[in-house]
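Design job #97: recover the sequence.
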């Protein structure tokens, strides 16, 4: 059973930065794909930065050039550096993981963290 624990959320003003972390534990060493999703108030959950099968990270259009995801395999930790934050980036950010990259990208990952709140004020 994989456990995901997010940290790093908080409140910032527009233009500020935050760095989220997602630590994975209980992993047996087999390949899993990890990614970040977010859910804004009144909106559906969306993928933000997802690990692809080629090892690259794919980003939703609204965060390209502002958010950078990275994976530290030694620490089993996924990061999301968020710069130039906008009020529309406000929401709960979730880390997800699945052995299938297809299920991860479909938003149907097997494992989910508890979420961390990001609030950006104008």
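Job complete. Output follows.
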């Amino acid at each position: 059973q994989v456990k995901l624990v997010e940290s790093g959320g908080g409140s910032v003003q527009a233009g500020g930065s935050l760095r989220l972390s997602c630590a994975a534990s209980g992993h047996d060493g087999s390949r899993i794909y990890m990614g970040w999703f977010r859910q804004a108030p009144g909106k559906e959950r969306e993928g933000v930065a997802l690990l692809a099968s080629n090892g690259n990270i794919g980003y939703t259009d609204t965060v390209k050039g502002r958010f950078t995801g990275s994976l530290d395999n030694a620490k089993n930790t996924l990061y999301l550096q968020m710069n130039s934050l906008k009020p529309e980036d406000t929401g709960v950010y979730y880390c997800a993981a699945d052995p299938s990259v297809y299920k991860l990208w479909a938003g149907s990952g097997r494992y989910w963290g508890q979420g961390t709140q990001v609030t950006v004020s104008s």
